[in-house]
Amino acid sequence: MTEMKPVEDVFLVVDVQVDFMPGGALAVARGDEVVPVINRLARRFSHVVLTQDWHPRSHVSFAANHAGRQPFEMMTLPYGEQVLWPVHCVQDTQGAALHRDLHVPHARLVIRKGHHEHVDSYSAFIEADRATPTGLEGYLLNVGAKRVWLAGLATDYCVAWSALDARAAGFEVIVIEDACRAIDLNGSLDQAWRDMRAAGVQRVNSDDVLKARETT
Ligand code: VGL
Ligand code: ZN
């Protein structure tokens, strides 16, 4: 039996959700600007995977669930240092919905992460305990993926952690910088780019991707 040639490129669109948009519960400055760029890029990829931050209301990453703690403080948890966030992306709320203008009808898979009450997960691959897999690595290996292209929110958290874990899993990894926006908390954006560069993550602009993947 002949097999279809596996598509080696996968476009991973991270957390383009209402709560990360201006006016949202954990707003990323100019986060909405990524939507048209991602829509354009997504048309050049036959294989697109989306992620959704998807927390129970009792989630350990919410400052509101720790007496006397404020959003954006650090807290030591059993698995390490955790930023305490405003309540965001609560399962099945409007804030957790994908942005209404995100238009990727051919997206094949939506990975929901951060659903365990006691563990956060910035990464689409491995939760913050650095042990619990989401299943995305197995999925990508199973479909024959070789390269993972990333865009979305936020550059310095969920995009960066996902990019680093994709590298660690052996994929070629490219972050499309102008299709991302950052939170930038205490230098987190510079640190994220340093870490990604050191790990061999490539950094490109959407124009280059669109040009290189032009359809005739
Ligand atoms: C994110 C902080 C908390 C992200 C998710 O999508 O980058 N950041 N939860
Ligand atoms: Zn979150």
Automatic annotation (TrEMBL):
One of its GO terms (molecular function) is metal ion binding. Keywords: Hydrolase, Metal-binding, Pyridine nucleotide biosynthesis. Residues 10-202 form the Isochorismatase-like domain. Pathway: Cofactor biosynthesis; nicotinate biosynthesis; nicotinate from nicotinamide: step 1/1. Its EC number is 3.5.1.19. One of its GO terms (biological process) is pyridine nucleotide biosynthetic process. It holds the Pfam family Isochorismatase. The keyword Hydrolase applies. PANTHER family: LD05707P, PYRAZINAMIDASE/NICOTINAMIDASE. Belongs to the isochorismatase family. This is Nicotinamidase.
